[in-house]
């Protein structure tokens, strides 16, 4: 115990500080109790200097159990009977994690949503919101008679629509394991039963991606953004494919900036026909 220069409030004796309390050496009065652990609040088994982990992984909506699970690992040091026993324990543990068919469907769907989000280069926010939307659809019994793959693609597309993230229907279909008919049927059910707050996507949301794919300079992208504003003021955006409007504005901006860009290249990047592109292009020229 370390000796302190403080005095006891009762007998003015010398105080002594221990690990958890401060006592008077003369009369034995407990002056203060301190059970706070003064050590580090983080714990790391690998490198205490660079990996100061406070807790485990954060909670996530992209897992059916919110990420609160236990994994039985594998080790090459286990041999014979002990290795077989751990294999049985791991198998029984994996079975016990899923208690119903609905939960099994949710596990598969969340894995498919994570794959889709990764393939489409979307954010974690879109991933989590897509999983929440799938849970809502499952609780409303909308999956009956429909494919899980179609619903996973539909919730990702619906989340992109509600969050104003520029992903076309064809892009989602190309990355999904469902047909366009399955996706649209599931999306219609979501929109009808859950009342999704979806609106038309702003063509300006497509400009950065299309300009990056076409390797266009910043001047062309800025001019195209101004042309989208002009098209919106003239009422040329309503009722048209937003990706086609974006492609038409990029093509016209490239022409005005004297940058070499063909209609076929712009239309292929936006996944529209050259006819769709020319419709916006001609209206803006007029």
Automatic annotation (TrEMBL):
Residues holding Zn(2+): 8, 11, 24, 27
Top-level taxon of the source organism: Archaea
Pfam family, one: TFIIB
Record keywords: Initiation factor, Metal-binding, Protein biosynthesis, Repeat, Transcription, Transcription regulation, Zinc, Zinc-finger
GO terms classed as biological process: transcription preinitiation complex assembly
Sequence repeat boundaries on the chain: 111-194, 205-286
GO CC terms, sorted: transcription preinitiation complex
Compositional bias annotation for Basic and acidic residues: 41-55
Annotated ranges, domain Cyclin-like: 111-192, 205-286
Chain intervals for the UniProt region annotation (Disordered): 41-65
GO molecular function: DNA-binding transcription factor activity; TBP-class protein binding; translation initiation factor activity; zinc ion binding
Record function comment: Stabilizes TBP binding to an archaeal box-A promoter. Also responsible for recruiting RNA polymerase II to the pre-initiation complex (DNA-TBP-TFIIB).
Family: Belongs to the TFIIB family.
Protein name: Transcription initiation factor IIB
Species: Halorientalis persicus
Gene from which the chain derives: tfb
């Amino acid at each position: 115990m370390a000796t302190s220069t403080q005095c006891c409030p009762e007998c003015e004796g010398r105080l002594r500080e221990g690990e958890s309390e401060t006592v008077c050496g003369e009369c034995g009065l407990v002056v203060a109790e301190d059970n706070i652990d003064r050590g580090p609040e983080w714990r790391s088994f690998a490198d205490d200097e660079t990996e100061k982990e406070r807790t485990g992984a954060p909670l996530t909506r992209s897992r059916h159990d919110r990420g609160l699970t236990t994994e039985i690992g594998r080790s090459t040091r286990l041999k014979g009977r002990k290795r077989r026993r751990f294999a049985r324990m791991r198998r029984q543990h994996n079975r016990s994690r899923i208690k119903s068919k609905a939960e099994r469907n949710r596990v598969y769907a969340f894995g498919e949503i994570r794959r889709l989000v990764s393939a489409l280069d979307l954010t974690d926010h879109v991933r989590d919101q897509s999983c929440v939307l799938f849970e809502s659809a499952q609780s409303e019994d909308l999956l009956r008679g429909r494919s899980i793959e179609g619903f996973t693609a539909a919730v990702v597309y619906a989340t992109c629509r509600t969050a104003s993230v520029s992903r076309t229907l064809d892009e989602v279909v190309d990355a999904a394991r469902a047909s366009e008919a399955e996706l649209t049927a599931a999306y219609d059910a979501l929109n009808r039963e859950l009342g999704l707050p979806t609106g038309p996507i702003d063509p300006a949301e497509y400009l950065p991606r299309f300009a990056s794919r076409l390797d266009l300079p910043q001047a062309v992208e800025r001019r195209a953004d101004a042309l989208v504003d002009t098209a919106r003021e003239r009422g040329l955006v309503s009722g048209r494919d937003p990706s086609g409007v974006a492609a038409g504005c990029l093509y016209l901006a490239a022409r005005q900036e004297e940058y070499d860009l063909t209609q076929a290249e712009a239309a292929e990047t936006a996944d529209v026909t050259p006819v769709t592109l020319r419709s916006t292009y001609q209206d803006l020229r007029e």
